[in-house]
Specification:
With 593 residues, this protein is an alpha+beta fold. It folds into 3 domains: 193 residues, Heat Shock Protein 90, CATH 3.30.565.10; 108 residues, 2-Layer Sandwich (Ribosomal Protein S5, domain 2); 213 residues, 2-Layer Sandwich (Ribosomal Protein S8, Chain: A, domain 1). It is built from 21 helices and 20 strands. The strands form 4 sheets. The protein has an 8-stranded mixed beta sheet. It has a 5-stranded mixed beta sheet with strand order 9-10-13-11-12, sandwiched between helices. A hairpin with a 2-residue loop joins strand 15 and strand 16. The longest helix has 21 residues. The termini are far apart. The structure holds adenosine-5'-diphosphate and magnesium ion. The site of adenosine-5'-diphosphate has 24 residues, from helix 2 and helix 4.
Length: 593
């Protein structure tokens, strides 16, 4: 019998290894940015085309490589960062396995240009599918530029596996933000399809957070600081009144490496106990420094999980550090006019014990039209409105017959989420957010179809500061937004002026809604740019609708009930989810038998 075992050629081995290291363009972004940081760069440019499909380029001003090192850097297990296994326990660099460049070069076209400050000439290397196609001296600036083109050009199956541009770009932005947050002293720029998304100047962590997530964050951040033998903790948590329904900005870094850890997350969550309404999540940007020897280093470099020797202690220290910071913040709240007013009712005794205030927080807002409606709300006869639903012509096209509500209408809000109201045959429970989405969706769709976007000019223009990245997104959506009734103009690189907003939107909520739109557009850009009116109307409805967790005034509840039943399809939100349920007296009676 013949022997059958073969050693795989390097090219094949590299392709297999690439499967682990290079999952998507964002993995390349992470590896290249980390290499630049390991090379002590102080300025790093990230340039992306087509969400990384055609180009991921990182240019740094780091220490560069010699001609030999440049060639070697693409060999598997070629690293300048460790020499033996012992050094693994003291590792300070991001990389150490020497696999990234070899893997990347196996599945893409790679151009490297690099030069050390001491050298006259630099080196240019081109590689495709692990084959060096050229290597020559070149004149170039100090540092390294690495371009990765046509990712997975030689593995169609992997290429087809990539998601749409907006998803891949989202992953890239996530990786970029993590690296940029971990290194506020390094300057970064990030361009996508020639559009500048980020320009981050070297500064402290607070400024970095603000530059990435927007100027509003400045007033949201509460510093956390704790220094113990086991761990030292630094960073910020978001004030409770800015908490969000979505788990957004939550970042842990251990020794400046982004990690995910549910156990530590829980510690922070617990520290916020009593300060957050149910379903709300705090933001945090927390940096833990731990002796590398106390961390399980045998972790996969591309994974973000991590194990500590002493996780219970770290948990306890983290929880108490966050609690302490929140307590201090509650003694001296910053001046903030949007703050929940009940905060002001907490008696502040100068020498009394500090207790975190237990309040229900509405971090969002109530986007109801108030100004135009309020003026005549007193004349508005709700009974009359309800009776309208009795007439067959009004209700014939409804999925649900709204059979003449009780003449003295009762609307009761349950857990700031549901509206309870009487109907003749029993009662009805309405999901305030979904119902409002339905109302807005139908209104927007009609306006868009008739091309009659109703814009209301603001009495006082509002200026809105935002990151350059967000500004760029906003600019790219200009025509869509104006078709919806927004009248917005650029004003300096990080500011826009809002002159007009869609009719029905409360003036005081204009900027908040716009910020939401930008956030949503980052993840669902196609919804806005597809040109599909239905999708656009849905997009607007979900960003403008009153959220769960918001307390409604009686009039607002009535308005929802009223407008909901003027809708063509009152029973479901635009996404098809149930907006209301009814319970008849018969059913109730049965339950009480
Ligand atoms: P690792 O980072 O695990 O060492 P990589 O494959 O990412 O492995 O990189 C291989 C080597 O190439 C690094 O150890 C480093 O010496 C060199 N290198 C990579 N990128 C850069 C860069 N931007 N500047 C200087 N040297 C670099
Ligand atoms: Mg590396």
């Amino acid at each position: 019998m013949e022997d059958i075992i073969q050693v795989l050629p390097d090219r094949v081995a590299n392709q297999i290894a690439a499967g682990e290291v290079v999952q998507r363009p964002a993995s390349i972004v992470k590896e290249l940015l980390e290499n630049s940081i390991d090379a002590d760069a102080s300025q790093i440019q990230l340039i992306i085309q087509d969400a990384g499909r055609t180009l991921v380029q990182v240019v740094d001003n780091g220490k560069g490589m010699s001609a030999t090192d440049a060639r070697l850097s693409f060999e598997r297990h070629a690293t300048s960062k460790i020499r033996n296994a012992e050094e693994l326990f003291h590792i300070q660099t991001k990389g150490f396995r020497g696999e990234a460049l070899a893997s990347i070069a196996a599945v893409a076209h790679v151009d490297l240009k690099t030069k050390r400050a001491a050298d006259e000439l630099g080196t240019a290397i081109t590689i495709a599918g692990s084959e060096v196609t050229s290597q020559e001296p070149t004149s170039t600036t100090n540092g390294t530029s690495l371009s990765v083109k046509n990712l997975f050009y030689n593995i169609p199956a992997r290429r087809n596996f990539l998601k749409g541009d907006k998803v891949e770009l989202k992953h890239i932005i996530d990786e970029f933000e993590r690296v940029a947050l971990a290194h506020p002293a390094i300057g970064f720029t990030f361009h996508h399809n020639n559009q500048e998304l980020f320009r981050l100047r070297p500064d402290g962590l607070r400024k970095r957070v603000v530059d990435i997530f927007g100027p509003k964050f400045n007033e949201k951040l509460v510093p956390v600081e704790e220094d113990t033998d086991v761990v030292s903790i630094q960073g910020f948590v978001g004030k409770p009144d800015f908490a969000k329904k979505s788990r957004g900005e939550q970042f842990f870094f251990v020794n400046n490496r982004f990690i995910k850890n549910n156990y530590l997350h829980h510690a922070v969550q617990i520290a916020f106990e009593g300060l957050l309404a149910e379903g709300y999540h705090p933001s945090y940007f927390l940096f833990l420094q731990i002796d590398p020897a106390r961390i399980d280093v045998n972790i996969h470099p591309t994974k973000t999980e991590i194990k500590f020797d002493d996780d219970r202690t770290i948990y306890a220290i983290l929880r108490s550090a966050v609690k302490k910071s929140l307590g201090q913040y509650s003694i001296a709240p910053s001046l903030d006019f949007e703050r929940e007013t009940s905060f002001d009712d907490i008696p502040l005794k100068p020498n009394g014990p500090v207790k975190p205030p237990s309040i229900e927080v509405d971090p969002s807002f109530n986007p109801f039209q108030s100004s135009p409606k309020k003026e005549h709300k007193n004349q508005f006869d709700w009974t009359e409105a309800y009776h309208q639903f009795d007439t067959p012509s009004q209700s014939s096209n409804k999925e649900i017959e709204f059979e003449g509500a009780h003449s003295t209408t009762i609307a009761y809000q349950l857990h700031n989420k549901y509206i309870l109201t009487h109907i003749k045959t029993g009662f009805m429970v309405i999901d305030q957010n979904r119902a409002h989405q339905r109302i807005l969706y139908e209104q927007f769709l009609k306006r868009l179809e008739n091309q009659s976007s109703l814009s209301q000019q603001l009495l006082f223009e509002q200026t809105l500061e935002m990151t350059a990245g967000n500004r760029a997104i906003l600019t790219s959506l200009e025509s869509q937004l104006s078709s919806l009734g927004f009248d917005i103009e650029p004003f300096g690189p990080q500011t826009v002026v809002i002159r007009g907003i869609p009719a029905g939107l409360k003036e005081t909520n204009a900027s908040a809604v716009l910020e939401r739109i930008i956030e949503d557009a980052k993840h669902n850009r196609d919804d806005l740019t597809s040109g599909n009116l239905d999708t656009l109307a849905k997009f607007m409805a979900r960003n403008m609708a009153v959220k769960s967790g918001i307390r409604l005034e009686k009039e607002e509840m009535h308005q929802i009930v009223d407008e909901l039943f003027a809708c063509d399809q009152p029973s479901a939100a635009p996404n098809g989810k149930t907006a209301l349920i009814t319970l008849t007296l018969e059913e109730l009676d049965k339950r009480f038998q």
